[in-house]
Design brief:
Blueprint: H1 5-52, H2 58-63, E1 66-75, E2 83-93, E3 96-97, E4 101-107, E5 118-125, H3 127-134, E6 138-139, E7 145-147, E8 164-170, E9 173-176, E10 183-186, H4 188-195, H5 201-205, H6 216-220
Parallel strand pairs: 7-8
Antiparallel strand pairs: 1-2, 1-5, 2-3, 2-4, 4-10, 5-8, 6-10, 8-9
């Protein structure tokens, strides 16, 4: 079948448009992937720095079923009059820590220390906290979240009551952070970009997905030990 010059030109333009779209999609994926790789590196560094000080009790770290790290929580900007940050979370499995899932946290008053514009946050979750996480988006009410006890003030005999314990580091100081009223959401876009569209937080956090190489620094910073 003979193709006219007009039709041939239309085919060339369509092919160029498809190639441009593919290139744009690849570039967007690469940019997002690179940003998340940097976030994983920052989360690993945050975990190492905040736990090496001893302010986060090692007993609680060892008892945690899931650990979330938000390496850069920012006041204002993204959410006017509130705080917002993104980070990663990993849960214990029978073979060690899971590949990290990507999350975001936002709220009207997450409890940055006086004068602080940025903060690093660690969230420790017990079994109930893990269940809340697996349910998807959840609100950190007063019954769910509490400022975690620091190294000097932790009394092991009191037990772990709140499903989520939070810690912050800002302005050079460590403290338990108030995150009541804030909301944790799974970043589905980042999950699909890194793990593929057929994976979600459940398959990632239950250990079904292999931990990517760029996440090794983060998972290596988590306390040793498998799920009991």
């Amino acid at each position: 079948m003979k193709i006219s010059l007009h039709e041939n030109g239309w085919i060339r333009r369509a092919a160029m448009l498809m190639a441009s779209c593919a290139l744009f999609s690849w570039a967007a994926w690469a940019q997002n992937s690179g940003a998340k790789s940097q976030e994983l590196t920052s989360a690993g560094r945050t975990m190492q720095e905040m736990t090496s000080s001893g302010q986060v009790p090692h007993t609680l770290l060892d008892q945690s079923r899931c650990i979330a790290v938000i390496p850069n929580l920012t006041k204002g900007g993204f959410i006017v009059g509130g705080e917002h940050g993104t980070g990663v979370v990993s849960c214990r499995t029978s073979s060690g820590w899971s590949a990290p899932a990507f999350i975001s946290i936002s709220g009207g008053s997450i409890g940055l220390q006086a004068g602080g514009e940025q903060s690093q946050i660690i969230l420790l979750m017990n079994k109930e906290g893990e269940q809340q996480l697996m349910n998807g988006n959840f609100q950190l009410t007063g019954q769910i979240a509490a400022a975690g006890p620091t190294g000097n003030g932790y009394n092991n005999s009191a037990g772990w009551k709140a499903p989520v314990l939070s810690y912050s580091h800002s302005n050079g100081a460590y403290a338990g952070a108030s995150i009541q009223g804030s909301k944790i959401s799974v970043d589905q876009s980042a999950m699909h970009n890194v793990y593929g569209s057929n994976q979600d937080e459940h398959t990632v956090l239950d250990g079904s997905v292999k931990t990517p190489e760029q996440a090794q620094q983060f998972t290596n910073a988590l306390p040793s030990g498998n799920m009991h």
